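Working notes for the structural subgroup meeting. M.R. asked for a predicted model of this chain before we commit to crystallization trials. I am recording the input and output together here so anyone reviewing the notebook later can reproduce the run.

Input as submitted:
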Amino acid sequence: MKKILLTIFVLILSQYNFSQNKLKVGETAPKLTITDYLQNVPEDKNFDKKFMLLEFWATWCTTCLEEVPKLNQMQERFKNQKDLVFVSITYESPAKTKKTLERVKFNSIVVSDQTKKALNDFVIDDKGTIALPKTILIDNKGIVRWIGVPYTINDTVITKFLEGKEILESDHTVSNRPPPPVVK
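Returned structure, recorded in token form:
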């Protein structure tokens, strides 16, 4: 039994580490598709010329939900950056998502894309694999500047992002967390 579990773990880990993202740092980001604004709805829904931290998550993803308080704290630390928006995006229905929003406090703009176009454009890799959570930084010119996971993002990454500086591998917080769950 242990051998089977180890084999499954290795297969999941290999998909996580070696799958190819369709989205690449330095490329123009696809247009963000939003079907529903669920919480913290902004007056101005036009995110053009804004710096965006996109957080892809799902109600079933415990790692996603565990990272929400850290993202809330980060948003609080950068609240004076009026041109920076934090957007938490799920593909799930508002009805399903509402139950989670009653339990977990999100400070970010919470949206859904029930068409799953955003999930396909930003998260699903070339093999059709979904790894959540996924964090993507898009600058005010619409260029993808960083792709990672919420537990490796920190103030250095955000500051460099806002200043237009290159974000180095060494800028990321090292974490003992396992890779995100992979779904096919």
